[in-house]
Amino acid sequence: LQVSQAQLTYSYMNVTAPIAGIVAKIDITPAEQVTSGTTIATIVTPGEYATISLNEVDAAKVAVGQKATLTFDAINNLSIAGTVSEVDGIGTVSQGVVTYNVKIAFDTNDSRVKPGMSVNAAIITNVHSDVLVIPSSAVKTQGNISYVQELNQKYPSAQALSGITTTETPHDVPVTVGLSDNTNTEIVSGLSSGDQVIMRTAATGGSVSTKSAATSATTRNFGGGGAVFRSFGG
């Protein structure tokens, strides 16, 4: 036991960096005593990383290897693909709230991205191929039941998207939903490709008519289950 304890103590004599790179600055002097959490050096790595903090619910959905899309408040129209490279195994508790740090490696570097910039990360946690997708705004819920609304008549796509004024009362169609990325939702059953569903309704001038904007269900590959995470100074 004494030998094991001595070996453990000896292992603390070596400090290992979590990333490969070049030591750009040393923040301590030889023989200086430091405590846990003290910054001893700054390392510059060729690769760029974004670090975000997730709550325990979101962290449970994220795993190393998942793809992500990164955007930056300071740089308009810049979107960088990335890959989750590290997820904390132990959370940090602050005021009773547990958070986990997640590191996302950039697939490509961009010189406009600077350390400390605010970053938004959309992480794809699941992907389904060749599925039926409609805008999430068209899906309504009542209790545990999801449904969409349709009209009996089918309209030309351009007319449907611009809005339809009709006295017809929409009817409810129960659906089974799958993945969602907060913008679009997968429909597992209840609709067919090309069906028109109502995205929103608005009453017109005191009459009983409604103006409905409709969209057609389309089939495509869909990466859902993702969420947009925001980090400051990452």
How many DSSP-defined strands?
18
Distance between the termini: 42 Å
Subunit arrangement of the protein: single chain
Helix-strand pattern, N to C? Answer: HEEEHEEEEEEEEHEEEEEEE
Structural class: mainly beta
Tertiary shape: elongated
Overall residue-averaged pLDDT value:
81
Can you put this structure into words, describing what you see?
The structure is a single chain. Mean pLDDT is 81; it is low at 207-214 and 224-234. Strands 3, 4, 5, 6, 7, 8 and 18 form a 7-stranded antiparallel sheet that branches. A 6-stranded antiparallel sheet has the order 10-11-13-14-9-17, with no helix packed on it. Strands 12-16-15 form a 3-stranded antiparallel sheet. The chain is built from 3 helices and 18 strands. The longest helix is centred in the N-terminal third of the chain and has 10 residues, at 2-11. It has 234 residues and is mainly β.
